[in-house]
Amino acid sequence: MRFRSLAATAAFFAFIFLGGCATNTMTGRSQLSLVSEASVSQQSISSYTSMMGNLDKKKKLLESTALNTRINTITNRLIEQAVLYHPKSAQWDWKVSVIDDEKTINAFCMPGGLMAIYTGLINQLHATDDEIANVMGHEISHALAGHGAEKMSMQMASSTGVAALAILVSKDNAQYQATNAALSAGALAFINLPNGRETEVEADKLGIELAARAGYNPAAAVTLWEKMASATKTKGQSDFMSTHPAPEKRQDSLRRLGAAMQPLYAAGKSAGAPYDWLHGDKARRPVRAEKDAIAFYSEQWESFKAGAIALTGTNQLLMVTKQGDFAKAYKEQHWRDLALGVSDSNYQWDLGYFYLAKAAAGLGYANAAKRYAALAEELSSNDDTACAQKRMLSCSGVDVAGEVRGASR
Ligand SMILES: [Zn+2]
What we know:
By secondary structure, the protein is mainly alpha-helical. Helices cover 61% and strands 5% of the residues. The site of zinc ion (ZN) has 6 residues, from helix 5 and helix 8.
């Protein structure tokens, strides 16, 4: 009996850590995913609706003021960019509320695009439009990157894991109850921790890019966190800082990222008016296709666009586990995910370069596509690197040599 429950627990954890993980293509990081984004968004809608309903009863929601217009304009420009990275979010129920509470320095975006900002953040920090865009960009990024679903998954994993562990260590029912209660309290203290530092780094990185593309100065990300930190020092812990721990050297990384964001910022400033995502008819929203999804700035992505990815590895076993995913991404034309997945896998063969060529062509990087096609052709004529010669791998139904022949000429 003891052995069987041990085996069951082991199987459970194997599921959690292998089956329950998914790589987030927006961040490249593997996340625990036991609950879907859709179900988390559903839960957010009900908590957001009841929270705003209560605030409205207490006359704590601002409506139709100049500040509402200002916040709507800023968040709407951010949403216009967010949907380019996460096309599914084009169907989210995007909303933003302005909460009349001068004492609270806070802002949030729940999974599914439900946002709020407190007047305390705006007025106590004397926040500029650029700073508001950077804080809201950071918040939207938590939602885009699925941090809510990740936190909820960890919560589920810890409570289920706690129950399994309690059964294992307890001999009788009374002891089980006591052990379970003690373990749960420990787990609760853990899961009630705010966003992790790792997810903070991600939200910083994504947020500054959304803001820059929306036409807001990336330098304001630095001044925003400086103001936030000094307000926390003089007035005690702010609500915002307690749930958004400062990663080490946050300002330094943001300054560096800000420099890389300058071309996007310049383009963003001269962009035309966005669609009204907050109030426009949902049925008439611009359609965003998964195949056109863009990636956040990274050295890897810059290198892909420039045609400079070099596939050099020889780990065939790793490729065996990934091949199906790549075939699927290719078939569904998920170009960004295909490009990032193939360059991550770093396996030297013609099919890899063929996929990179298709992804580059699909996203409009013609020169890069040409270079990857030439490499695919070259590798297809070498037995060591041709998919047609691989024993454990196949060409996933692609005639690489036939497809790329002459592409380089
Ligand atoms: Zn955060």
